[in-house]
Amino acid sequence: MTKLNKKITNRLTSGIKKFQAILTNAKTKDINESDTVIIITDMLFYIFGYDKYSEITSEHAIRGTYCDLAIILKGKLEILIEAKAIGLELKDNFVKQAVDYAANQGVDWVVLTNGITWRVYKVTFGKPIDQELVIEFDFLNLSYKKKQDIECLFFLSKEGWTKSAIESYQEQKQALSRFYLGAILLSDPVVNMVKRELKKISPDIKIQPEQIKDAISLEVLKREVVEGEKANEAKKKILRGIRPKHHKKSKNTIEKNIQSQTDIKPTIEIVDKTKSA
Questions:
Q1: C-alpha span between 17 and 28 (Å, rounded)
Q2: Do 21 and 46 touch, CB atoms closer than 8 A?
Q3: Which one of 132, 164, 196 terminates a domain?
Q4: Does 88 reside within a domain?
Q5: What is the predicted pLDDT for the residue at 251?
Q6: Residues whose CB falls within 8 Å of the CB of residue 95, separated by 6 or more in sequence, listed in order
Q7: What domain range includes position 127?
Q8: Within this chain, do residues 153 and 183 fall inside the same structural domain, yes or no?
Q9: What is the pLDDT of residues 34-77, one digit of tens each?
Q10: pLDDT tens across 198-227, in order?
Q11: Which parts of the chain sit beneath pLDDT 70?
Q12: Are residues 115 and 202 in the same domain?
């Protein structure tokens, strides 16, 4: 995490104090979408540091229609913002509209907000187009005294954006996701390590790597962790990462390993009573 200088920190903390009062008043009045957009524009300027006249626009046309707001830095469209009335609950179909806009423009990032709730999504250009929720916060619940709340705002600020802070955060979050951890548990180096440890415990029992993989996938991991597009992508990335250190195999062998892991289809789902990562 980039260390914040005093100027940025002061702007973010004072922004929390100022706009919590403004948003509370606006929510009480249940203002409409147009008036909410005015407040969001002011937040982008006063809190997040974007120039109101050159970097924030509501005139960006997409397929004949206009998105609510957009952030443009050095002539490049960086963020599309879908704004809703302050009293409106943010629903999944709202972000789909914004993601469709982003996909049409080749934009990686979308923000959905009603001024109070803020959700920042990374667009994934697969088939179909999808999105990953990277940051979500309730502005009225932020505390200017909490470092993590200030850092959360910094990710969306102009300074944080130009330093790719949110990209680094998203990569870290992705690396710790259940899909990546599941792929690591099923990778050959980890399975071989488990085999060695089991051999120490039960030296007379012969256990094959595939048996360990089946046990992990069937009895340790949930089905959603080892199946689906996100799980397969995680397995491919993990295999690419371990290839130089642990494998001297041909491309065909690597692809075969990927396919073998992709084909694991557990028939038993173990219910995890703790909240999924």
A1: 17
A2: no
A3: 164
A4: yes
A5: 43
A6: 82, 110, 112, 119, 121, 131
A7: 6-164
A8: no
A9: 999 999 999 999 999 999 999 998 866 555 555 689 999 999 99
A10: 888 788 888 888 888 888 777 777 665 656
A11: 1-2, 59-67, 126, 172-180, 222-231, 233-235, 237-277
A12: no
Q: Is 30 left (phi over 0), alpha (psi -120 to 50) or beta?
A: left
pLDDT, residue 200, reads: 83
Residues 136 and 251 in one domain: no
Per-residue pLDDT at 180: 63
Residue 227 backbone zone (phi > 0: left; psi -120 to 50: alpha; other: beta): beta
CA distance 235 to 243: 12
Task: Classify residue 274: in a domain, yes or no.
Answer: no
The reply to whether 235 and 138 lie within a common domain is: no
Residues 234 and 177: beta-carbon distance below 8 Å: yes
Query: Residue 155: its pLDDT value, please?
Result: 94
The per-residue DSSP string of 220-276 comes to IS-HHHHSSHHHHHHHHHHHHHHHHHH----HHHHHHHHHHHHT---S------SPP
Residue 268 within any structural domain of the chain = no
154 lies in the same domain as 242: no
Rounded-to-integer distance, Cα 22 and Cα 146, Å: 20
Domain holding 107: CATH number?
3.90.1570.30
pLDDT at 276: 41
Q: Are residues 120 and 190 in the same domain?
A: no
